[in-house]
């Protein structure tokens, strides 16, 4: 593309305060695709087949959608939207050729794709856990990951909490490896449950009489 070149594009966004208009040449080059994507509504359930698994996400060929001029599928699931639970790779959750039903999140006007969520169609284990557990509760869990500032512990199916370094032992430690290892079973106390951010804070310091 050169300065002064004439183009045909569709207006996809207007920002009056900034005095800017966003245009898309892909919209005019793929009218069938653009028309399909603009008909979708947030929360709508879309079915399709996993077309490709990449390190950055999963492409889905939608049953009712047109083909994409560049990508393996019009639908795309980012890594965080694949599952509520912790996993190592996308292949742990889906496989190529698998049939999936996903919730539509939004229309990515840059890539001309439907951003999808697989986890939106499945129960959130964290919310179920939070319904039955309150701060102060003692639980038994298994250490799943160690990070420089603490350790993650699985306390229920699909639910992990973080023990910060300062809460791992009665006396200060420099690394979590000094007191726990992956696979260890430990007793922990729930110190905070954040439903909105799906975060669970745990401690091994309180109360001392319940230490493992």
Q: Which features would summarize this protein structure in a list?
A:
212 residues, mainly beta, 2 domains, 5-stranded mixed barrel, 12 strands, disordered C terminus
Strand fraction equals 35-45%
Q: Which spans of ≥5 residues are poorly predicted at pLDDT below 50? A: 7-15, 21-28, 208-212
Overall tally of domains: 2
CATH architecture of the largest domain: Beta Barrel
The computed structural class is mainly beta
| Principal-axes shape call | elongated
User: What is the H/E order?
Assistant: EEHHEEEEEHEEEEE
The CATH class of the largest domain? Mainly Beta
| Major sheet details | 5 strands, mixed, barrel
Characterization of the model:
The chain is mostly beta strands and 212 residues long. The chain has 2 domains: 10-121, OB fold (Dihydrolipoamide Acetyltransferase, E2P); 125-210, OB fold (Dihydrolipoamide Acetyltransferase, E2P) (Beta Barrel). The chain is built from 3 helices and 12 strands, in the order ββααβββββαβββββ. A 5-stranded mixed beta barrel has the order 3-4-5-7-6. The chain has a 5-stranded mixed beta barrel with strand order 8-9-10-12-11. A two-stranded antiparallel sheet has the order 1-2. The N and C termini lie far apart (66 Å). Residues 7-15, 21-28 and 208-212 have low confidence and may be disordered.
């Amino acid at each position: 593309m050169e300065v002064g070149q004439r183009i045909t594009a569709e207006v996809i966004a207007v920002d009056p305060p900034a005095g800017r208009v966003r245009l898309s040449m892909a919209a005019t080059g793929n009218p069938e695709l653009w028309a399909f994507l603009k008909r979708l509504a947030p929360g709508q359930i879309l079915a399709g087949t996993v077309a490709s698994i990449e390190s950055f996400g999963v492409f889905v060929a939608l049953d009712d959608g047109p083909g994409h001029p560049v990508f393996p599928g019009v639908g795309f699931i980012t890594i965080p939207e694949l599952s509520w639970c912790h996993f190592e790779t996308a292949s742990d959750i889906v496989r190529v050729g698998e049939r999936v039903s996903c919730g539509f999140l939004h229309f990515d006007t840059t890539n001309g794709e439907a951003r999808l969520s697989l986890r939106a169609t499945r129960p959130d284990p964290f919310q179920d856990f939070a319904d039955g557990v309150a701060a102060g509760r003692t639980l038994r869990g298994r250490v799943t990951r160690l990070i420089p500032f603490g350790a993650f512990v699985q306390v229920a199916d699909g639910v992990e909490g973080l023990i910060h370094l300062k809460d791992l032992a009665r006396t200060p430690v420099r690394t979590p490896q000094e007191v726990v290892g992956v696979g260890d079973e430990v007793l922990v106390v729930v110190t905070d449950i954040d439903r909105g951010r799906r975060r669970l804070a745990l401690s091994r310091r309180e109360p001392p009489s319940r230490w493992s």
